[in-house]
Design a protein that fits this description.
Strands 5-9-10-11-6-7-8 form a 7-stranded antiparallel β-sheet. The protein has a 7-stranded mixed β-sheet with strand order 14-13-15-16-12-17-20, sandwiched between helices. A 5-stranded parallel β-sheet has the order 22-21-23-24-25, sandwiched between helices. Helix content is about 40%, strand content about 20%. It is an alpha/beta fold. The N terminus is likely disordered. The structure holds zinc ion. Zinc ion binds next to loops.
Length: about 750
Amino acid sequence: MATKPGMVGELLIRAGLIDSAGLHSAQEVRSKSHVSLGTALSSLGLTTEEAVAAAIASGLQLECLAGSTLPMVESEIIALLPLQFCQKHLVMPLSLQSNALRLAMSDPLDYSAIQDVMFRTSKQVVPVVATQTAILRLQDLFPSKTVEADETYENLTGASPEGEVIAAEDVEEAVDADKLARDTKLAPVVRLVNLMLSGAAKAGASDIHVEPKEKNLLVRQRVDGLLQEVFKIPKHLQDATISRLKIISGMDISDRRRPQDGRSRLRFEGQRIDLRVSTLPTQYGEKVVIRLLDQRRAVMPIEKIDLTPENLKMLQQLLLRPQGMILVTGPTGSGKSSTLYTALNWVKSPTTNIITVEDPIEYQLDGVNQVQINTKAGVTFASGLRSILRQDPNIILVGEIRDEETAGIALEAAQTGHLLLSTLHTNDAPATVSRLFDLGIEPFLVASALIGILAQRLVQRNCVFCSVPHPPNPETLQKFGGIERLPADAKWMAGKGCEKCMQAGFKGRLAIHELLHVNDELRALITARAPEHELRRAARAGGMRTLIEDAISKAAKGLTTLDAILQVVSPDDAAAPAEGTEATTESVLPARGIRQEPEISGAPKKNENSKPAVTDGRARILVVEDNRTIISVVKYFLELEGFDVLLAEDGLIGLKTAQREHPDVIVTDVNMPVMDGISMVKTLRADPLTRDIAILMLTSEDSLDSETSALSAGADDYILKPVEPRRLAARVKALLARSKVRQVAGVER
Ligand SMILES: [Zn+2]
């Protein structure tokens, strides 16, 4: 369902179909029931569903599913999406044209629905506007409509939980004598909580979110990084359920206003799972988050963490060194600590003294002394590490290096007879070296202590139960530079979706790696503070396989898909040639003969050297984007703001249009088939004629990586997708204002 009903509503008001009071009433209807805006408006007698659909379609220049005869939908098209999903988003797949899925939608601006569909189907989505009535009638084509039902508390009451909850030792049994405490001992509540916990353990969930909503208590769990709804608990059992969770975690149930932390344990299939429980007061009650620290994940054999045979051998060699520093790097949630625990578990022996300093201690390892950070008690990474060194350890694990002090002590320890393992929050192996420099560590110290860096990411693993041979689509191949750049003997596979993977096609995650072994050449380069691309070149010459190369080779073995890889790493990483970064830009520069204008030194004044634009003084915005929905949305709203909008479907076309038309602002996507946004921006910035055009980049990943790459490529600003039209318009205006100031002041970039 649309999360921003205002966008379509605004469109209808501008089209003169309704007024803002009508929109307001319709939104009230929608807040109470799961209906489209059109249905809400027609139920109020303000207009008809068909008129709404037609207005949306014409406003956004999209196809409209009109008339009373509904189209036929092939069964293989219906099978692309599960019914429950289509009901939730009010959508229906219609047909497939090459890789574009025509999707009936009541709200074509529901970008999150579009993203979900693209993710599930790996297809581009072409929205077709339809009324809710039409969509519901089309959904009757699903074969299993009658048997599907939401998993609710009622469905679960018959089930019996398989695990057993053990209260934490420090729990005082008699917390309170009031009704609340008695309620928590009621059999249904106890069983419900046990069911919630054992169900999560069974699904391999990493955390459970128990969230009070207005009408119920929502229970969700995170499996393979994705949150999924488990069930809803009736409102009248909310207090008892939350109190039960607090009691087993040793919290004070009478205090509901303060956030609390606690712990508990679950015995499941003979294993002990530690639970970290925390509460947070919210509008409708206390929200409870339970982290499951599953010991089973910690003791994974080192052969099972997806390292290639070469990387496995190299890592084992590094772990057997008597001293030096090994860093595991990647963003949060990339499986760094699992890898470190696995490594420690492999290297430990009765004769090695292993001490860790962590925050938090995620897994308890037998035969390892683990120290928990406690800032209040003065135990920081740095101070903990100092005390550890007095205990004569052979191997030290420092949970994370965050500051100069910790980095300094760690590097020193790594040079004085200790093997030191830690993590850093960096993108790739070569960038880790720069990060250490940024922390103020002298290059020679880094060079002499560092022995290896393992960069890691997790990508979705193809479901083994439903994977079938499936070649990547041409668009995806283009993003990877074409089929000729991919392994010739590849066995591409993809999951079709089955019960075991909840129709996702993926089950579990697969680690991809980049292992940099610091050899003599690299050591010399680090000492000389060589730039990252030189480190990368030397590392690759020394046999390092980059993250993207590792990912591609795993996809070529059928373990994951190229599209799944794109969610995590950018193929640009692979495109960076061994010689450095310059060549990327050069290779996409247009041939020199194309440009007729003479080279001008200094900042050229706008619209004087380039072809004069035929405008009536309105600012011109060039939108470079390959997604038709985004193009429609962006164009529509920018035109409403009084801008002239030019369109280009790809970076290369965008580049040529920019050179020819010299727009005031360019709004560009990052990922596009022929030339991506980053390369386009770099090229524009390298050219005196286009270098002062203001550029706004649309980045899709909500990560630091894309932000920094957007800005370092030369974009003036970036905005995260999904695009909110008003925010976009505001940013474009701000850029225009700034570039005017720049022009007046004659400031060069
Ligand atoms: Zn499956």
